[in-house]
Amino acid sequence: MDQEQLQKAQMLEYHLKQTEQQLELVKQQYAELEQTQAQLEALETNDTKEILASLGKGLYLPTTIREKRLFVEVGAGVIVRKTPEETKKVVQEQLQHLHRIKEQLAANFDFYLNQLSQMIQEIEAKN
Q1: What is the C-alpha separation between 75 and 96, in angstroms, rounded?
Q2: CATH numeric code, 3-126
Q3: Are 14 and 7 in contact (CB under 8 A)?
Q4: CA-CA distance, 27 to 23, in Å (whole number)?
Q5: Number of alpha carbons in the 13 Å side-chain half-sphere of residue 67
Q6: What pLDDT is recorded for position 1?
Q7: pLDDT surpassing 80 at residue 113
Q8: Distance CA 38, CA 3 (A)
Q9: For 80-110, what is each residue's pLDDT tens digit?
Q10: Max CA separation in the chain (angstroms)
């Protein structure tokens, strides 16, 4: 294998690993949003007046629900009030956006994997 092929293979492997990491991050974010969506549905249908509110990773505070309107960050630190139904629509839009990103990353991953496989086959054919 010459130096140029080696560099090209290393570059493809780098892109493959980067894409795989990005894909895993998007999958994690997607799962978190799905959980948020399920919790919003439970909030809408449940008549309970007390919940455990998350304060951060693994920290919860028992809380009394006075009303079901939520404070939702819409970007750049801006917070607005929304109903659970309105919030579910926002979450659904985010899920759709992440789904499109996930599909694109999966296509990129397949492309890089295919390119690397072809390169390996060419090298093996020469030997």
Answers
A1: 18
A2: 1.10.287.370
A3: no
A4: 6
A5: 6
A6: 57
A7: yes
A8: 53
A9: 999 989 999 999 999 999 999 999 999 999 9
A10: 74
Residue 104: both structure tokens together = 């694109």
Q: Using 50, 70 and 90 to split pLDDT, how confident is the model at 25? A: very high
Q: Which two tokens stand for residue 119?
A: 């390169």
For residues 33 and 95, the answer to whether their CB atoms sit within 8 Å is: yes
> pTM higher than 0.70 for the full model?
yes
Task: Give the per-residue SS3 of the chain.
Answer: CCHHHHHHHHHHHHHHHHHHHHHHHHHHHHHHHHHHHHHHHHHHHCCCCEEEEEEECCEEEEEECCCCCEEEEEECCEEEEECHHHHHHHHHHHHHHHHHHHHHHHHHHHHHHHHHHHHHHHHHHHC
